[in-house]
Amino acid sequence: MPTAAIGAIVPWLDQLLQTDATPDYTGALNGLQVEHTGPVHRVAAAVDASLRSVQQAVDVGANLLVVHHGLFWGGARPIRGALHRKLKLLLENDIAVYSSHLPLDRHPALGNNVLLAHAHGLTVADTWLPYKGVAIGVVANAALPTRELAERARAFGALHEHHTVVTAFDPDRISRRIAICSGGGASADSLREARLIGADTLLVGEGPHFTAVDAEENDLVVIYAGHYATETLGVQALAQSIAERWQLQWSFLPAPTGL
């Protein structure tokens, strides 16, 4: 059975994703979060480093878990409860964890946003939504009935147990400039930026209530396709890339939240 050294995989991932060059939230801790003795023989991908995902990694026999949301979003905290159980499972089963948040969102080929565009039949034309000077989202130009785009988003969300919500729009409306940002992509900043770039439609994972009000008042349509659903794409593409490069087996570990 083919295997690979974690010491070879991690530098390759860091370079591929431009991990060190991509700013992120403090708790993201992008890169290798938990090491192991190795070698890697099976890769698993999950959106969250949740207890459910870690247990699934154990169940499928993976010893490298690639995630979008890592273990330490809450910052330094006591190792007890769910965190203790997760770390115990990882260490007892010699499972390494590699996490990539904004570096994976923004990747031009494997990223959540470009793949979200492709999943909805859209072609990326530009980038948008800078975080500390680095663009995270993508923009697609189209001439697509908004109702059709909404139906595509509903079908996509349903694949991951998410009920897609769309703000009100005229039945004859056409989406011509679609700004895309996975996860919690709807915010005061993103709606303002969407208007600045001339977007008429915003395809995101989720957002607070006020963003729907703001959108209606500014002739924007927001499609909330699911935080979890919109971030299933990048980790799968990344795990598949690792597996193909080192001839390893890989699995996607579904753990939908409904959000």
Can you say what the CATH homologous superfamily of the largest domain is?
NIF3 (NGG1p interacting factor 3)-like
Number of β-strand runs: 11
- Roughly what is the average pLDDT, rounded to an integer? 97
Number of separate structural domains: 2
N to C succession of SSEs: HEEHEHEHHEEHEEHEHEHHE
CATH-derived topology of the largest domain: Udp-n-acetylmuramoylalanyl-d-glutamate--2,6- Diaminopimelate Ligase, Chain: A, domain 1
* The top level CATH class name of the largest domain: Alpha Beta
Strand order of the largest sheet: 5-6-8-9-10-7
Describe the structure.
With 259 residues, this protein is α/β, with parallel strands linked by helices. It has two domains: 6-100 and 232-250, NIF3 (NGG1p interacting factor 3)-like (Udp-n-acetylmuramoylalanyl-d-glutamate--2,6- Diaminopimelate Ligase, Chain: A, domain 1); 105-230, Udp-n-acetylmuramoylalanyl-d-glutamate--2,6- Diaminopimelate Ligase, Chain: A, domain 1 (3-Layer(aba) Sandwich), CATH 3.40.1390.30. It has ten helices and eleven strands. Helix 2 runs parallel beside helix 3. The longest helix is centred in the C-terminal third of the chain and has 14 residues, at 233-246. The model has no long low-confidence stretch (mean pLDDT 97).
Key features of this structure:
259 residues, alpha/beta, Udp-n-acetylmuramoylalanyl-d-glutamate--2,6- Diaminopimelate Ligase, Chain: A, domain 1, 2 domains, 6-stranded mixed sheet, 5-stranded mixed sheet, 10 helices, 37% helix, elongated
